[in-house]
Amino acid sequence: MDAATPPQEDEISPQIKAEFEEWGTKTMGGVLAGMLYGGAREAASAAKMEQSRLPFPHEDKLKPKGKIIREMTENKVLRIARGTVLGGAKLGAFVALFSGVQHGLAVHRSTHDALNTVAAGAVTGGAFSLTW
């Protein structure tokens, strides 16, 4: 087989398939956990901000109270949606890199041990300390 032809499905080892499936499962779990955490965090902070932004009865006579509440609700929903997407992306990328390095080392070294986890943590920590 020359370098120009892609590998056939039969040629990929079962170990690599299993590692790839496990990596995908962990990455999706990280994305979902990040989405839940990011959305919940934004919902909590939006609720605190909402309390302080409610108008007093003598304020803003020109703007109806319903319109103010609608604007606040729209802002709250947008903040929660933004927090959900960003949380999922951040934690998902972290988990994807960590699991990718860990499983890549496991395939390369043909063993699952603590050294794979330590190396994956070092690479991931180094990469994310440079970006965040």
UniProtKB/TrEMBL annotation:
It is found in: Membrane. Its main location: membrane. The keyword Membrane applies. Keywords: Membrane, Transmembrane, Transmembrane helix. It is a multi-pass membrane protein. It comes from the Eukaryota. Transmembrane segments: none annotated. InterPro entries: TIMMDC1 (IPR055299). This is Complex I assembly factor TIMMDC1, mitochondrial. It comes from Ceratodon purpureus.
